Amino acid sequence: MTRESLDLPSPTFGLPVRPAPSPTRVEWRSQDRTFVLSVVNFGLACCSVEFLAAVQGRAEAMAAGTIDARARHAGVVTDDGPRTSIEVLVISGTCTDALAPAVKVLYDQMPEPKRVVSFGACSNTGGPYWDSYSVTKGIDQMIPVDVYVPGCPPRPEALLGALGELMRDHDDQRGSVTP
Amino acid sequence: MTRPDGVPAQGPVVSPRVHGVIALVEENCTSCMLCARECPDWCLYIESHTETVPATTPGGRDRSTHVLDRFAIDFSLCMYCGICIEVCPFDALHWSPESDYSEGSLLDLTHERTRLSGWRATPAADGPSDVREPPDPVSGS
């Protein structure tokens, strides 16, 4: 039986042109302003399921228990205070060396200001595949990572906690720049 | 309980057996290295040395005992399989449901013994009936 008779998809090389991933909008209240996080999930393996659970299911309820702010879906934007938009890239899953260029391209194409969340053991350090020949030993070899979320996979709430960590860091940096 | 903006104030109810983070009961650890050797990821670090306990009775022999110098788990590598917990003959490790401990630096995800011991306090107190109390420290030895 030949490969053609099985009607299997042929492997392709290079980066296919795809539509840009649609980000999940998360609204984040700081003391004096509102941040709108455009969270893009680059789901490479099983961890991306946890990402979906975090942003789709009962994100609001989970956010209330884990982070000290409101996380809301797109369309729910309040009117009070100035808003700052931040692009957040979440790498969830095992990044292989073959896919590493795609991660780099995605990061390079994101507009500033941007932050990166490494979600799960594989994107942190390679995780269980730390001695594999084909797995990147952490995405921070290619792109700067702001928050590392531990877990295999991390719980959905951990993502919202990581966004909280991200915004606290952002607030701290901002505070040091503008007294 | 609901906050004024309609968002429930409570977080999700998770089972206390959820694989959140691994807690260490330091007093129970005998530095036997079983967990470190069984770990499929090699993410446990144990260092110990031997001390001699002098004989307590006339004509008795001195005894040797292991003293733990370092116990660390690298949670940036850990695959949360729980084999270390299962294999520990002295119940020196147990699960804690805590999951919110992301860090800005990879190095901070390696929890040393004091931080691992800190997770002992976090098993859910009012969870379902499958709550497992952290084991009591083994006395003597």
UniProtKB/TrEMBL annotation, chain A:
Region (Disordered): 1-24
Entry keyword Translocase: yes
UniProt record, GO biological process: aerobic respiration; electron transport coupled proton transport
One Pfam family cited in the UniProt record for this chain: Oxidored_q6
Keywords of this entry: 4Fe-4S, Cell membrane, Iron, Iron-sulfur, Membrane, Metal-binding, NAD, Translocase, Transport
Keyword presence, 4Fe-4S: yes
Boundaries of every NADH:ubiquinone oxidoreductase-like 20kDa subunit domain copy: 46-165
GO MF, one annotated term: metal ion binding
CC annotations in GO: respiratory chain complex I
Protein name per its UniProtKB record: Unannotated protein
TrEMBL record, chain B:
InterPro entries, per the entry: 4Fe4S_Fe-S-bd, 4Fe4S_Fe_S_CS, NADH_quinone_OxRdtase_chainI
Positions of the UniProt region annotated as Disordered: 118-141
Transmembrane segments: none
GO cellular component, one term: membrane
This protein's UniProt keywords: 4Fe-4S, Cell membrane, Iron, Iron-sulfur, Membrane, Metal-binding, NAD, Quinone, Repeat, Translocase, Ubiquinone
Pfam families: Fer4, Fer4_4
Domain 4Fe-4S ferredoxin-type: 20-49, 69-98
GO molecular function, one term: 4 iron, 4 sulfur cluster binding
PANTHER family referenced in this protein's UniProt entry, alphabetically: NADH DEHYDROGENASE UBIQUINONE IRON-SULFUR PROTEIN 8, MITOCHONDRIAL, NADH-QUINONE OXIDOREDUCTASE SUBUNIT I 2
Name of the protein described by the UniProt record: Unannotated protein
Species the sequence originates in: freshwater metagenome
Lineage of the species this protein comes from: unclassified sequences, metagenomes, ecological metagenomes
